[in-house]
Predict the 3D structure of the following.
Amino acid sequence: MAKSPKPSSEMSAVDLPEVERILDFMQTHGLEEFEYERNGFRIRLRRPAAVGSASAPRSPLVEAPAPAASAPSGPEEAVGQAATAEDLHVIKSPIVGTFYASATPGAEPFVKLGSPVETGQVLCIIEAMKLMNEIESDVAGEVARVFVENGHPVEYGQALFGIRPHRKT
């Protein structure tokens, strides 16, 4: 990390030991990207993916097409095939954390199966490092599938919801 010759007022808000802890956390959990906000200061960290290293993503981004008659090889592929078959828009987790369907324990969930949703509407919360991150819908439609149970851990890129988008007539 390069240092500026003169510290600016923005740099005084940076807690370098905390950034180092976040970088260690990213390394430990194999994260390629991490966003963090605290006291009005926002930081986004991104590591370049090393080709052929152990920290490379577990599944390749481009796969050879499988024969149509084959069964799904894993849960994510099964979710993708089900969503494609139902013509659903899949909302995926942008971070690693714990999925919460409501704002507080015992409260009504943000959305249920069959709920109408608008673009920008909060669907759930993912807690990561004691921060509550609201996950919003990027399409308007109806909740057709909920892929995660309340209180369960989620991985980066894991399917959370299947939204049946509104069709323009």
About this structure: The chain is about 15% helix and 30% strand. Strands lie at 33-38, 41-46, 89-92, 97-100, 116-117, 122-128, 131-136, 141-146, 153-154, 159-165. The first helix runs from residue 16 to 29.
